[in-house]
Structures are given as C-alpha cells and as structure tokens.
Design a protein that fits this description.
GO biological process, one term: tRNA 5'-leader removal
Pfam families: Ribonuc_P_40
Distance between the termini: 45 Å
Protein name: RPP40 protein
Strand order of the largest sheet: 3-4-5
Oligomer: single chain
Largest sheet: 3 strands, antiparallel
Shape: globular
Number of helices: 3
InterPro entries: RNase_P_Rpp40
Strand content: 25-35%
Order of helices and strands: HEHEHEEE
GO molecular function, one term: ribonuclease P activity
C-alpha cells in the first residue's frame, strides 16, 4: 500500500547500507598464559589452571589489563594464575557487528588451522559476546540488563579437538540447559 511505498522512497533517498562488521587485529608479545589441561576442568596445583581462572584471565587480556600485579597500579593488581607460561606471540582478533551462527562455525573451523604446522598452538579461544542491552537472551526469557548485561559464551579448543564451553549471563537470565 501507500505506507510501503513511502518507506521505500525514504530508504532509497537515505541510501541505507548494509553495515559490515568491524575487524581489528593485534599481536600481544610475551603474554603470560595459564597452563591448561583439556581433561582437567578444576585445575591442579602446579599442573594446570581451572576454567574459572582462565575465564578471569581472558577478561583481563581482552580488556588490556596489565598482568604484572604492580602495587602502584590504580586499575588492577591482577596477575596471571599459576601455573603459567610466557607465549612469545599471541594473536587477538576482534570482530564487532551482527554475526550469524553459521559465520561463528566458520570462524571456529578457521581457528583450528592454528593447531597445524608451523603455528602449533596448544589451545585457543573464541568468545561470542551479545550486546549488553540486547532485548533477548537464551530460551524464552527477556534479557535482564540490571547491572552489567552479561550475555556471552566462550569456546576453549585444544589441539586434540577437545573443547570447553563457558557461558555467562546475568542473574535474572535463563541459561541453556
């Protein structure tokens, strides 16, 4: 009807374009990384770190928080959990935009190439973060913003293709079973 044609003329005049996801790359040098064992979710003293310790460390790395526990730092005295190892070069890629599940599966498949020669990564992560003020979350519940709007999941994939799946949602949200 008339309403549809009015909308069409509005969009053609204002040249609405498809927004492409924004991609940023950075290389982190001499990065302290937790030691992980795929079959040990709880971690063991002097052998490996737990899933919770990894999740906290990942948050610090993604937010570019220093890991050196300096008492003079007003921002953070966080340090990498023990045991850890220094990785000469870690690669961080951030993609911001609306990304469909099929693309996330493609990204996971491409990331697994880092287990082959000559890269030989021990493990890698892929974090998918929903917008904090997204109206929906998992299952049938509305997404409760409340304090932080947490709404994310994280894959940790190991060289033997075992993986961990971590999920974080706000206190008032449903989580998948």
């Amino acid at each position: 009807g008339a309403e549809g044609s009015t909308l069409m003329s509005y969009f053609s005049k204002n040249q609405i374009q498809t927004l492409k996801p924004k991609i940023t790359f950075s290389t982190l040098r001499d990065l302290q990384c937790p030691v992980l064992q795929s079959n040990d979710l709880q971690g063991k003293p002097e052998e490996s770190c737990s899933t919770e310790e990894l999740f906290e460390w990942l948050g610090a790395v993604l937010n570019q928080v220093s890991l050196d526990n300096k008492s003079s730092s007003f921002l953070s005295t966080y340090c990498c959990p023990e045991p850890n190892t220094v990785v000469e070069k870690a690669f961080l890629c951030t993609i911001t935009g609306f990304i469909i599940p099929e693309k996330i599966i493609q990204l996971l498949e491409q990331l697994c190439c880092y287990f082959g020669e000559p890269k030989l990564a021990h493990w890698l992560t892929l974090t998918v973060h929903g917008f904090a003020d997204s109206p929906v979350s998992w299952r049938e519940s509305e997404h409760g913003f409340h304090k932080g709007g947490e709404n994310l999941y994280n894959f940790v994939i190991f060289r033997n293709l075992d993986y961990w799946l971590q999920m974080a949602v706000g206190a008032h949200d449903d989580c998948p079973p």
